[in-house]
Design brief:
Blueprint: E1 37-43, E2 47-49, E3 53-61, E4 65-70, E5 77-79, E6 83-88, E7 93-102, E8 108-118, E9 126-132, E10 136-138, E11 141-150, E12 154-159, E13 166-168, E14 172-178, E15 182-191, E16 198-208, E17 238-240, E18 253-254, E19 259-262, E20 265-268, E21 277-278, E22 299-302, E23 305-308, E24 311-312, E25 327-328, E26 335-336, E27 338-340, E28 342-344, E29 350-351, E30 355-362, E31 369-377, E32 392-397, E33 406-413, E34 421-428, E35 440-447, E36 450-455, E37 463-466, E38 486-494, H1 496-499, E39 524-533
Parallel strand pairs: 2-8, 10-16, 21-27
Antiparallel strand pairs: 1-3, 3-6, 4-5, 4-7, 7-8, 9-11, 11-14, 12-13, 12-15, 15-16, 17-39, 18-28, 19-20, 22-23, 23-39, 24-27, 25-26, 28-38, 29-38, 30-35, 30-39, 31-32, 31-38, 32-33, 33-34, 35-36, 36-37
Amino acid sequence: MKSRILTLTCLTLIISSCGGGGGGSSSDNTPSVSLPIINSFSSNLSSININDSITLSWSSSNTTSCNASGDLDEWQGSLATNGSKDITLNTSGTFVLVLTCSNINGRIDSKNISIQVISDNISNPKITAFTLSSNSITINNSITVTWSSENASSCLASGNLNSWQGSVNTNDSINISMTSIGSYDLILTCSNEDQTISDQKTLSLEVTESDTPTDPYAVDKDSYCKLPSNNNGSPNYWIEEFNDNKLDTNVFSYQVGNGFFSGGQWVPGWGNEEEQYYTSCQATYSKQCNNTNHTTENTFIEDGFLKIQPIYWNPTYPSSTNGQAPFLDPYNQKPFLYTSGKLVTSDKKTIDPGSEVTVCFKVPEGSGHWPAFWMMPQGFENDEKYWPRDGEIDVMEHMYSNQDNQIQSTVHYGNTYEDHAYTYGIETIPQNVNFVDKFHSITFKWVNNKLEFYLDTHDEPFHSLDRSTSKAFMNDSTYWPFNESFYLIMNVAVGGTNGGYINHSKYCQDVECSNLSDPDMGRLLIDYIEVKSIN
């Protein structure tokens, strides 16, 4: 590349003669002639590609001649006092072009402009490919976006699709799940290092409603969960994917023990005759606390999953004299043969109406396990809210009454304990994709006066509660508590009224769960929790 810069001094020459002092006189024999003026000197382009042309235009007043000079061989010599000229530039670089015009007395005016000529082979970024796997798809399917570029140091994705935004690699391919119907423009802009030159291309995509219902379980997969995506641009978007083995104590707290106080009375077994003691990382409240990760033998993060592991401290396992020692309640030294984990977000993260909550999970195998992902009203733990008046939302629970291919969502309410009522929905799926062997998701869509529960990618709720149509809430005969803030809870209970008979052969019986060929079959696994606003 050639770059030449000419430094110019622009002068206006004025010739005059002045008389001396002492009261003498002066005279100027030069005829009175107006000064030369270059009115304009411009190029239609200040930066062009090599072998392209520019048009130079100029005009002047009170001049008799003009002259071209500067860096370009094509811009040299005499010119008319007003005119234009096309020049093809076949050398790269930055060039200064000078125009000098003079009058009959030799007085001059001068102007200059700079032109940048860029070589295609060196600096010009170019998008060589930008394609979609399909320009028209049905909702809940995916597209593949593929692109490549040359001479680009950065590329930017933009347009009206929220999942196609921000910096991207200069050459890449990504999959995007389309969960909303609409017309979308995907824009790719690739630039050179100093961002002065760019290339841009646009693709159009149509997402339509599916013509015929599709079976989401037709293809065998490890997970049938709805893919997390902030596709509506929610300003309050939150997701926990458990990619760090350290439990986030800014969001989650442990709940401990085997019961709670209600109205000054101790309620053992959490009111359901449950047999587990919930452990925590508080001193003496678990057998093995990892203080760095804030996890216990019952609640930990591994391989990108939150794992809640109930343990049966079997007195005869392993086959030794003493077996497994039971866990002793640090408050009263009462022995417990079962421990488990329970996490809550009370006072740390609350959910309000106008939210969509999705949990991707896999439940433990065998009767006696009672896994749940549920919600209680904020203030319940502080005795500011009461059950059942202030409500309970069981987003997901799997009980002894459910088959391996069934899941349940339940909503509790009632003015008093004696008036306690509930509605529930059970969803059944093919046995070959049951909740024990595969990951599934439940999405809870919550707006004022209405609750809906969806399984996986289904677009119809399997359970809902609408204040305007529910007989229980007509004429305000029953208090509607579901327009207030709630917090999240996740746990696995052992036995009790809804856990049923405890099948010890399906339970972990030591910290490593070494008695099960696949330890995860004895655990509740949570892949992610997602919360976003509903537009």
